Amino acid sequence: MGKKLSIFDAGFLLMETRETPMHIGMLQLYGLPEDAADDYMEQIYRRMVEVEGICRPFNQKLHSRVPGRLDATWITDDNFDIDYHVRHSALPRPGRVRELLALVSRVHAQRLDPSRPLWESYLIEGLEGNRFAVYNKMHHSMMDGAGGMNLLQSRMATTPDEDFPPPWSSEWNTRLPQKRKKKVPAVGLVKSLRNMQRGTSQFVDLMRQPKESNIKTIYQAPKTVFNHRVTGARRFAAQSWSLDRIKAAAEKHQGTVNDIFLAMCGGAMRRYLLSLDKLPHDPLVAQVPVALRSAAEAGDGGNAITAVQVSLGTHLHDPLERLEAIKDSMNGVKGRLRSMEKAEIDIFTMISNLPLSVGQMTGISGRINPLFNLVISNVPGPKQPLYMGDAKMLASYPVSLVMHGYALNITVFSYCDSLEFGIIACRETLPRIQRMLDYLEESLVELEG
């Protein structure tokens, strides 16, 4: 008997169309060892595909008996083809980062085959600076972004001398301690109704917040150029920022790294919309995912997140006033989550996400007022360098998804002493998104001054 998808996980299957593929990805850059042999890349590829077996969740595919996949379950793929899932590519000359990002933009726009396990990995050689790249993508129904990153990077070495198999190798079945199945306590009818009532009450109370408040909820966002229908084409931009710079700015303004990150995004969005002469009078509202699962639980699969709406203060010219508005907004929603039990958060998440799912499935998203303007995520990552074999990982950039009505997504991973920004957008809806990288830098400089 296969593992049944949760309602939340199945929602990503129901929302998927040709224009809105529901997978997420990660682009990793590696340095070639100084003594690398001429066939080093071929050796890496052989190591990735020559495994004796495949472990969960990488060997799981979808099975459903009814249209719409409302009864979808994960089952083992008995005809798994490793050569289909792991691919060897090379960049066209001169092998600049520009060519790499263009390749990732094209590959990320392509849907995963629903008849196979929903993931792919690309080994990409030919990158200038004696480097190569690995781009991984997996369906959001299979795992959320934080879980996927934690799973892949927890199966990487912390020294060049360690011999770790690829993340999908069945060797991990014996390398990792076997988890005992958690006993899920039975929840009585009275308690279930109480959780439903409390989760619903939290949502209704949040909806009553005045629009002028910094504490935001769905349907309080102005319609912008980000909030139109999308095509299947994508454009990806990426860049790293020093974590020390961001921490120094956070200390200067009695905030957190996440506060400064959101303020960088708020300042960049203000600049971008001003450059198009399309800045609304009301502040942009970002949907910010919040992880509900620890890194140790990454291999459990599925999605364990909720989402809150945060004001970006884009109506404010002064960067410090904008930062204070963001801090006030984030503290308000975080305080609300802290006051709720896990079961209440589950109800709250289901209710607040239902309009998003319905909008995508019915085709009305991008044609009516948006629930929010864009998605912005901050995923904590490893603080020590990681290795694939003896190749050191230099950077790791998130590649997320966009939907009808929400044509822009900004996600960051932290890695060692950097914040790695990944910006994904609909190529046809939003022009020149690479300029956002300059606007992010200008917004950080403002906060450092």
UniProtKB/TrEMBL annotation:
Molecular-function GO terms, alphabetical: diacylglycerol O-acyltransferase activity
Any one annotated GO CC term: plasma membrane
Lipid metabolism keyword on record: yes
Lineage: superkingdom: Bacteria
Pfam families: WS_DGAT_C, WS_DGAT_cat
Domain spans labelled O-acyltransferase WSD1-like N-terminal: 5-260
Protein name per Swiss-Prot or TrEMBL: diacylglycerol O-acyltransferase
Domain O-acyltransferase WSD1 C-terminal residues, every copy: 302-447
Keywords for the protein's UniProt record, in alphabetical order: Acyltransferase, Glycerol metabolism, Lipid biosynthesis, Lipid metabolism, Transferase
Catalytic activity, EC: 2.3.1.20
Family as reported in the entry's similarity comment: Belongs to the long-chain O-acyltransferase family.
